[in-house]
Write a structure and sequence with these properties.
The protein is α/β, with parallel strands linked by helices and 281 residues long. The chain is built from nine helices and eight strands. It has helices at residues 2-34, 38-60, 87-96, 105-108, 113-118, 130-145, 174-178, 213-221, 244-258, and strands at residues 63-68, 78-82, 100-104, 123-125, 149-152, 182-192, 195-196, 226-232. Strands 1, 2, 3, 4, 5, 6, 7 and 8 form an eight-stranded mixed β-sheet that branches. α2 (38-60) packs across α3 (87-96).
Length: 281
């Protein structure tokens, strides 16, 4: 009986999600048509995405989000770094305030997700080329100088919720290059379907391994309830001469200390994704 109920629940929530997605795409395309300036267009894209990500998280996915220690004063131009478990935490972060996300070139080429992310004002980077990653760091620094708020997931992949992977360093130094602060943020899932975050429900909020987006998101839609938490941590002010490894390690330590790992349920353990040896960042 519960299986049938969850199918109806998922289908109902999918209709709401698609409604918001369609309206989001229409409004974003209108912004693209009437805004010529690239930076102004990106700002409008991120503001529009923030609005609809919040609506989707609250009204389609029924996620209760608690935001802790959000700074009262918003920096004009800052690099927000956070742990990353899947598509859901992107919705949560984007719904708090307008932000432009850094993602991979592969995402741009993904059906549906490519156009959705492009119309959200995302930055696309090629992490596996040292030459390109350095030039893209400069591009991000210029955008930060222009006052954009940019989100970086320095793990460079989504995880299965067991731990925070070591941080890649190069893109984090865009903040020092631009003279703007780094805002570490930790994302935690506190409960799913009334239970503490555990491996029984982990695959409905963590997108990792070989799971397709459709397979993953259908599990998300079928959930009864999710309680999540986004906590803003101490702001870092990197200087141009600071060691990038030390800055990355400090941010990683801060986020890891506040991260609550998934609780293991017998028979549901899954392998942790490994770092790509070709990733030079």
């Amino acid at each position: 009986m519960e299986a049938i109920t969850s199918i109806f629940r998922g289908s109902y929530k999918a209709v709401i999600f698609l409604y918001y997605l369609i309206v989001y795409m229409i409004t974003s395309l209108f912004i693209a048509a009437v805004t010529r300036d690239r930076n102004k267009r990106r700002r409008r894209f991120s503001a529009n995405a923030s609005k609809y990500c919040g609506l989707i998280a609250r009204n389609a996915l029924h996620i209760k989000l608690n935001v802790i220690n959000k700074p009262p004063e918003k920096h004009q131009g800052s690099l927000l770094v956070a742990n990353h478990m899947g598509f859901v935490d992107i919705l949560l972060l984007a719904g708090i305030e307008p932000m432009s996300f850094i993602t991979s070139n592969e995402m741009r080429e993904t059906p549906l997700l490519g156009p959705v992310t492009e119309l959200a004002g995302c930055f696309y980077v090629e992490r596996r080329s040292r030459t390109k990653i350095l030039s893209e760091m400069k591009r991000l620094a210029n955008s930060l100088k222009d006052g954009l708020n940019i989100v970086l997931y320095p793990e460079a992949t989504s995880t299965n919720g067991e731990r925070v992977l070591p941080f890649k360093r190069t893109l984090m130094m865009a903040a020092a290059e631009a003279g703007v602060p780094i805002q570490p943020v930790v994302i935690n899932f506190r409960s799913i379907n009334g239970e503490a975050f555990n491996t029984r429900w982990r695959d409905a909020v963590c997108w990792y391994g070989d799971a397709t987006f459709v397979e993953y998101f259908w599990k998300t839609l079928r959930l009864k309830s999710v309680v999540a938490e986004v906590e803003y941590l101490e702001i870092l002010y990197p200087g141009p001469n600071d060691d990038r490894g030390a800055i990355a390690d400090k941010a990683h330590a801060m986020i890891s200390a506040k991260f609550v790992p998934v609780q293991q349920v017998s028979g549901n353990a899954a392998p942790m994704p490994t770092d790509l040896e070709t990733d030079p960042t």
